[in-house]
Structure formats: C-alpha cells, structure tokens
Design goal:
Elements: E1 3-6, H1 16-31, E2 35-40, H2 52-63, E3 69-72, H3 77-89, E4 93-96, E5 99-102, E6 109-114, E7 119-124, E8 131-134, H4 142-152, E9 157-161, H5 168-178, E10 184-188, H6 208-213, H7 218-226, H8 241-247, H9 262-275, H10 278-288, H11 295-305, H12 315-319, H13 337-348, H14 355-368, H15 373-385, H16 393-400, H17 402-413
Parallel strand pairs: 1-2, 2-3, 9-10
Antiparallel strand pairs: 4-5, 5-8, 6-7
Helix pairs in contact: 1-8, 4-5, 7-9, 10-11, 13-17, 14-16, 15-17
Length: 414
C-alpha cells in the first residue's frame, strides 16, 4: 500500500509552498487508495513557535486534507534512543561532547532515481562530514528521527521540496547502516517569485490562513496550489478536488520551478466565486464578516457584485453603503445641492420603486434640466453611496428603498 507523510516542524506557520507539498502528498495517497500521514517533527525544541502546531492542523482541516494517522516526534524519544544505541553498540556511531554522532566513511557513492523527472542523482560520501543523530539534550536530529520514523511508519514515497536533495545522502546512509529498504524519493522544484528569485513574503508567500482571512475560497486555493508545478495537460486549469485526485500522477510534475502569481490566484478565486450558488455565497460572505451584517441584505446585493469581486474581502468596500450611511463623500457635491433637492421631489412622487422605472425617471429628469447623464448620475451616486464606484446605481437604490434614498439625498444637501 502507498503510504506518504507530511512532516512539518512547528517552528513557524507553513507558507503556501509547504502547504502545496502537503496537497501533493494527499492527492498521491488518495489517487492510489493509500494512506496520508501527519507527523509533527518537534525535536528542535529551541525553535518551537507557540501556536504553530495548532496552525498546521488548522490549515489541513480548513483545506479538507484529512490525515489517516498522526504522530508527534517528541512523544517517541525512547524509540530514537533505542535505535541510536544499536548504532553505538555496532560501532557505527560514537559519543562526543554529550551528543551521538554517525560515522560517515569515505569513498562511498549514494545515488537514487528521483521520481520527479526520473533524474539520476548521486553524491560522494567524501563531501559528507560525520553528523549528529542525537543531540546533547537527548532529542534526535531531523535526519535521524526522519529516517527512523519513515521506516517504522512504512512510508513508501517521500514527496518533499528539492531543498532536501542535499540531505538525502545522509538519509540513504542511515537506511544502509540499519539494513532497511529506502522509500522512493520525489523532490518537488522550488516555487519562485515573479522575479525568479526564491519565493518569500515579499512575493505574497503567506500562510494559507492569511489567504483565508483575505477572503480566498479553499477550493480556489487548492486549485491554485495544484497548478504550482503540476499539469494534467489539455490546458485544464479549473479543477475540483475529485478531479485532482482522479488525474494526479507524479509523472506530470514539471521539473522546472513554477512561478507564484497572485494575479492567477485572484483570477481562479473569481471563477470560483462566480460558480458559487448565490445562497452559498451569501453564507460565505456572512461568515467572513463574522455575522456583522444582515444576511438578508447580503442576499439582495449579491447579484449586483458577484461578477465584480475576486475575493470575499472585496464585498464590503463595494457594499458598505447598504449597511451604513456615508460618513464622507469622495467627490464634493456641495455645488449640486439644488439639483439634489429637485431629485428628491421627483423621487417623492414615484409610486413604483423598481430599478428600471427609477432609471427611466432619472434619465427623464437629467434631460429636463439639461445636464449630461454622466455628470448627473455621478452626483446621484455620490449622494446615495458616498463613492465614485459602486454596484449598479438604480438596482442599489431599489434595494435601499425609497425612504432611505430620500434620507441620503437630504443628508447630502445639509
């Protein structure tokens, strides 16, 4: 059975590159009816960050990347001690300055066929120094605990970032000295920023939780991440989870480094928002703003803005005027007070309060007072919404209601 793992260290909150690795492992496991394992590698006690472990689990839970088994390395210290003592007893390891070191012989070659691109990679042992496997604090190093756990957990494929290629010879040597069979290694190309340098926060390489809090949908984030280095062909870009699981294959992972493009994420998120049923989008927006705004009003406004927003956080800047009277105006309309007062009189006489009828009456009035439509409707838009850009004005006025519109216009003339 295929068994893969992700092994995050709670020394910080994983950025989107780390989460992409988790996604690739998850898809590979599910495609092959295998197991997806979470292993918290918390043996570097000095660098632990409070809340990082919880954030790791929160990210996986929110994205729906459910793991089948969970392990925490700090709870397995006796296991690592047992295996280090085996190496000490066989004179393969030695103690120095309170730590246990592994002897690395010269003249050996460590090689493997990497599953990404079927690359043949080799290292000479001459370039590898003896290395610590148990630190002076009694905790294992990453390299040692990683190999022991991968063996004991029957990991068949190690899918990780290519920054770990240089560590693989140490791992292969450990497999060799224990007489264990090594897993298949698959090293994913590093994600680059738009300037082709290593991805960092200045490129937008934030945690998935950051993107969630900015109003990106989990389905869009998953879709965006799968395209960072994998392509099933046929120019297919929009895929749900079931499709990803069905199509995912390591052979389709590109050997070149993918480029992180926030504009692409925005586009994908916009596609998912437009594909979302209005009732579901209403709930998503309502929950995104923690229930602060009435869901019935959100429901009314969704048809006006659904094609305009790229993420949930775009909603309020466009629609806040539905919930709160303008505190200021983006354009000074103080010289248009007389026009606005006349508009109020026209509206007061209006019995049918529907967007198309409102629009006709406003056009008739603009012609009557011989003012350009663009100038007139900008004045009206500013008086009602406070903004130069808003959802369609006539429909917005219908939703606000006749009394509220008159109230807003009166306020603009005061």
């Amino acid at each position: 059975m295929i068994r893969v793992r992700i092994a995050p260290s709670p020394t910080g909150i994983p950025h989107i590159g780390n989460t992409r690795t988790a996604l690739f492992n998850y898809l590979f496991a599910r495609h092959n009816d295998g197991k997806f394992i979470l292993r918290i590698e918390d043996t570097d006690r000095k660098r632990l960050v409070v809340g990082a472990k919880e954030a790791i689990i929160e990210i996986l839970d929110w994205l729906g990347l459910e793991h089948d088994e969970e392990y925490i390395q700090s709870e397995r210290i006796d296991i690592y001690k047992k295996y280090s003592e085996e190496l000490l007893n066989n004179n393969i390891a030695y103690k120095d300055q309170g730590a246990v070191w592994l002897k690395v012989p010269k003249g050996k070659i460590f090689k493997w066929s990497d599953a990404i691109g079927n690359k043949q990679i080799s290292f000479k042992s001459d370039v590898i120094e003896d290395f610590v496997i148990i630190k002076s604090d009694g905790f294992p190093t990453y390299h040692f605990a990683n190999v022991v756990d991968d063996h004991l957990m029957d990991i068949t494929h190690v899918i990780r970032g290519d920054e770990w290629i240089s560590s693989t010879p140490k791992h292969l040597f450990l497999y060799e000295v224990f007489g264990w069979h090594a897993p298949v290694f698959a090293h994913l190309p590093v994600i680059l920023g738009p300037d082709k340098s290593k991805l960092s926060k200045r490129h937008g390489a934030e945690s998935v939780l950051y993107f969630r809090d900015q109003g990106y949908l989990k389905e869009a984030l998953l879709n965006f991440m799968i395209l960072l280095g994998w392509n099933p062909g046929e120019d297919r870009e929009i895929m749900d989870m079931n499709t990803m699981i069905k199509l995912f294959d390591l052979k389709d992972i590109n050997t070149g480094s993918p480029i992180f493009d926030i504009k692409k994420l925005d586009w994908i998120n916009g596609v998912y928002i437009r594909q979302t049923q209005n009732s579901n989008l209403k709930t998503q927006i309502y929950e995104f703003y923690n229930g602060k705004y009435p869901d019935d009003m959100i429901e009314k406004t969704i048809p006006l803005i659904k094609e305009r927003i790229k993420k949930l956080s775009d909603y309020l800047p466009l629609c806040e005027f539905f919930f709160n009277d303008p505190e200021s105006y983006e354009v000074d309309v103080s010289d248009k007070k007389e026009v606005i007062r006349k508009v109020i009189k026209v509206i007061e006489k209006q019995d049918v309060w529907k967007a198309d009828i409102i629009g006709e009456k406003m056009l008739d009035f603009a012609r009557e007072i011989k003012i350009k439509n663009s100038e007139f409707f900008m004045t009206l838009r500013i008086a009602v919404t406070g903004k130069k850009i808003s959802p369609p004005l006539n429909e917005s006025m219908e939703i606000l209601g006749k009394e509220k519109v008159i109230e807003r216009l009166n306020k603009a003339t005061s």
